[in-house]
Amino acid sequence: MEIVIEDLNVIYHPGTPFAKQALTDINLRVASGSFVALLGATGSGKSTLIQTVAGLIKPTSGQLRIGNQVVTPKSKQLSELRRLVGVAFQYPEHQLFEETVAKDIAFGPRQQGLTEEQVAERVEEAMRWVGLPPSLKDRSPLALSGGQMRRVAIAGILAMRPQVLILDEPTAGLDPRGQREMLDMVGRLHREQGLTVLLVTHQMEEAARYAEQLVILSEGRIALTGSPREVFGNEQALSRLKLDVPEITKLIMALNRNLDPPLPLTLFSVEELERELESRWKRGDDR
Amino acid sequence: MTPVVIGQYVPVDSFLHRLDPRGKLVFVFAFMFLVLFADRWPSYLLLTLFVLLAVKGARIPLALFLRAVKPILFLIILTSLLHLFTTKGGGVLLQTPLFSVHEAGVEQAVLMSLRLFVLMATATLLTCTTSPMEITNAIEQLLRPLTKVRVPVHELAMMMSIALRFIPTLWGETEKIKKAQMARGVDFEAGSLFRRIMNHIPILIPLLISSFRRAEDLAMAMEARGYRGGEGRTRWRELTFARRDLWLIPTAATLWLALWYLEK
Amino acid sequence: MEPILHVSNLRFHYQPDALSKERWALKDIQLTVGAGEYVSIIGPNGSGKSTLARIIAGLYLPTEGDVHVCGRATSNEHELWQIRRRVGMVFQNPDNQIVAPTVQDDVAFGLENMGLPRDEMKARVAQALQWVGLAGMEEREPHHLSGGQKQRLAIAGVVAMQPDIILFDESTSMLDPQGRAEVCQLIKSIHERGTTVIHITHSAQEAFMAERLIVMAEGQIKLDTPVAELYPQAMKLKEWDLDVPLEVELHHRLVKAGWPVRASITSKEDLVSELWRLLSKT
How many CB atoms lie within 10 A of CB C123? Predict the structure, then answer.
């Protein structure tokens, strides 16, 4: 589902001495079914932006449109918007509270007033989507491993069948294997369910590998946006924003200090880099 | 996004801030006793005047102080209304078929609201000029003699201090979980009172679980840093009486004598 | 180098009284660490690395085998308190290891437990806060600190106790990149001051900062090698589902593709200059 944000400003506690501008003049268009990574240092406004898109914070000015739902500062009801957007905050497993996995996943759909059969169907479907075996259905979510608990939490969100899925650092605290599996799962959901995905991450590797569009926030404003190639190829902007870059980009930059012509900064896998080096080397041989 | 707690510590520098917290604590208790003991107009005027002077001396912005006292305004009004209508005696000032207001009622209402105001203002003044850490410390040191009769004074103080440390953390966590459950479709404002209470279960249970986890982690971290109870422990915060703390004694004595004279 | 830590035939079970002892959290651990070493331990979740750290810190007792820290056995109840003074530990969750309501009170917490006189405490607290870069924040309340600052505060609390060994148990895993960089920098300087450092982490990048790397999986030590000798065998890390640093993987691929790269690469800088050499020869 398409997301369009126009001239959005969010100010916390407006009109008090504690007023704090969290987002300034945000304009952003996210195409339906795309995979967007949201990057930026702590305090850059990422968290405010996703909460606004999720309908948990109202804009102070400007507007937000998701599908045909429009939110302005005057909007009374945000519950319709919340139906369209599912959000998994950091460490979402900390919000689990039911006795069994199935009951916890069913919590959201029940709030939507579905029948018991529909709810059961949603639970089964969501567990399949996140790769949880049906045998875990009646287990206590607290007895599962960290990675599995997180899947239960995400299943609980997917069971509400959102059109837009927001994930706030879904790999935080997992081991490398858990991180890989989590991202592969998100990628699969994006491809197979056609979800529009907004991924908040600190890890440039994740962003470069999975996202089609990067949005970089800095001090509450959008500082840079574009495809991974556009963003990580823009060395000036990167150094101006003091942005962390993927390890591979760091390696290429190190190599480029003594290479003429330099290697392109738009290689994001070790295979690509190897191929590029290989062709360089061969070319040298021919000379 | 921490809530404004009633009587939150206001870190400015004043004579009252610099006083030893033990002295302040004892003085405040003595003063509160005086307030409860006072029963006449002149005594109340004296006590109110004293509190107002103290507020002035504490250099706390008046707006902040009033905001701290505001929550009990409701209580004051309620109590004074109660006294206004229920106390009989003296001439009848107002007679309606439903209720009557007597002279004694008016007097009692005013006295009671003054009493409540002075009590609350004193407590607020204490917490505004003394950091929670100092209060904890003072309580621990004042109660130390009770260790002899096996009251776990050190443990109680440690508990208070840990509570102080974690209240803001848990508050932040509550907000976080609330947001997450709102995103899952819970509407905390809708429905009957029962419904609204039930709606908070998805917040309370995760909060409880996380508090247990924190407690476990913290116990491990404390042990790793060599914590083994109060025995053999030295202290970082040392309280020392200074010359200025002596002022509390003549002040208290004067107030007592004055009250004793006025109430006689 | 005189060993500061000696672990022999260590086994650990969370329910030592259970009838079936199949699920050992740790088995057959042999480990010797010299004073001043910088060791990193990596391994997947559930590999037993945190359990090992807690045993070294004297927080858990071995089910079987011996652990000697600074010449004292952890099995001796009386020595245990001495060991906890000698071994500092920085945990994963920055919030759950800060005990006191203000920064300075928290740094002093361990010193109070040690029973240090107040003058000494004052000096150590000031020094530790200065050292981690939190000087001037003495009165700050911990919930007003960033994640990286909280973790630096935890480090200050440990450093002030002047332990011989400091263990970091996934201390960077909940931090943002800036916080991670700060903590890694501090770990490095702790090592440079001569303190023995054991850093448990998921991150291959961080693990490679150490001098010696230990891989744990299924409760056992699978690999124990100087980092400088790791390049040729680093691809093994994939066997245990661990990440391999990118430059290591590139080196491995180039060797396989028949490039005449040196096998004895020791670091990223080393690889970069080797590639410069090869590419400029033409």
Answer: 12
Interface predicted TM-score of the whole assembly (ipTM), two decimals: 0.90
Residue C255 structural domain: 245-282
Secondary structure of residue B114 in the 3-state scheme:
helix
- Give the three-class secondary structure for C67: strand
B223: three-class secondary structure by DSSP: helix
Distance CA B216, CA B209 (A): 11
Q: What whole-number distance in Å separates Cα of residue B258 and Cα of residue B261?
A: 5
A215 and A134 co-located in one domain = yes
- For residue C258, is it within any domain? yes
Looking at the domain assignment, is residue C120 inside a domain?
no
Residues of B in contact with C118 (CB under 8 A): 234-236, 238
Strands A164-168 and C212-217: unpaired
Chain C CB contacts of B236 under 8 Å are 104-105, 108-109, 111-112, 118, 121, 125
Predicted local distance difference test score (pLDDT) of residue B2: 42
Q: How far apart are CA C151 and CA C106, in angstroms?
A: 12
* Cβ–Cβ below 8 Å for C46 and A145: yes
Helices within A96-145 (DSSP H only): 101-111, 116-129
Instruction: Give per-residue pLDDT as tens, A44-72.
Output: 899 999 999 999 999 999 999 998 889 98
Residues of chain B neighbouring A107 (CB-CB closer than 8 A): 184, 202
B186 contact residues in A (CB cutoff 8 A): 111
CB burial of A88-110 (b: ≥16 within 10 Å; e: otherwise) equals bbbbbbbbbbbeebbbbbbbbbb
On whether both C15 and C57 belong to a single domain, the answer is: yes
Alpha helices in chain B (DSSP H): 15-18, 21-37, 41-57, 62-69, 73-86, 103-129, 132-143, 153-183, 193-198, 201-224, 248-263
At CB < 8 Å, which residues of chain C contact A?
Answer: 44-46, 92, 146-147, 173-174, 176-179, 202, 204-205, 241-243, 245-247, 249-250, 253-254, 257, 259, 268-269, 272, 275-276, 278-282
* Closest by Cβ to A111, choosing from B173, B184, B201: B184
How far is Cα B138 from Cα B145, in angstroms, rounded to an integer? 13
Q: At how many degrees (to 10) do helices C147-159 and C118-132 cross? A: 140
pLDDT tens, residue by residue, B207-255: 999 999 999 999 999 999 999 888 888 888 888 888 888 888 889 899 8
Does residue C116 lie in a domain region? no
